[in-house]
């Protein structure tokens, strides 16, 4: 049986810490909502081999419109149990070895935002997936290639990073439907071959997660 090299253990250790801590999605009030949003953006670096989660997944940045109720629209609340948004079969396929129960992302206002993440190391193959829901009507729009047949508007983009010859690729899908925004982030890399999965693999995975999340929003 092969054992993990010390360099890999060092890379994966921060992931365990992030899984316990969750991703903060808090605002401290209308007076400093913009500052909180800026801090959240600064705390979300792009994925790297040293931290394949990209800083704990995409998380959910507070909206720029301050506190208060959600913008009037079709969706009054996001799913209260975001980890139930994806079928177990989808989680097992996209993140082999992960607990299907997932890790709820922390939020100070579950009436406006919720989210969940899954991650696992299967042999030497690492995967991270997270989804987030925002019904404020003011979440940032996504960028990238259009995705047809998904919400009112959907985009997908992916990028690859490399650190010490270790590649990690991440895809992000942003879906807008009425006042709701769903973001699905999927990334990974193989720590034996040092190669990242193909663009198609991460894009298809993120789109699949986004489709399931959108269905959960309508339930």
Strand order of the largest sheet: 1-2-3-7-6-5-4
Contiguous helical run count: 4
Apparent shape: globular
Whole-number radius of gyration? 17 Å
- Tell me the quaternary state: single chain
Biggest sheet, open or closed, and with what strands and sense?
7 strands, antiparallel
End-to-end gap: 45 Å
Range of helix content = 10-25%
Uncertain spans: 1-59, 62-70
Mean of residue pLDDT? 77
Beta-strand content bin: 25-35%
Structural class designation: alpha+beta
Q: Which H/E pattern describes the elements?
A: HHHEEEEEEEH
Number of strand segments: 7
Please characterize this protein's 3D structure.
The chain is α+β, with helices and mostly antiparallel strands and 219 residues long. Helix content is 24%, strand content 26%. The protein contains 4 helices and 7 strands, in the order αααβββββββα. Strands 1-2-3-7-6-5-4 form a 7-stranded antiparallel sheet, sandwiched between helices. A hairpin with a 2-residue loop joins strand 5 and strand 6. The longest helix has 19 residues, at 199-217. The chain starts with 5 loop residues before the first helix and ends with a helix. Residues 1-59 and 62-70 have low confidence and may be disordered.
Topology:
Elements: H1 6-21, H2 33-42, H3 88-94, E1 103-104, E2 113-122, E3 125-134, E4 145-146, E5 153-163, E6 166-177, E7 180-190, H4 199-217
Antiparallel strand pairs: 1-2, 2-3, 3-7, 4-5, 5-6, 6-7
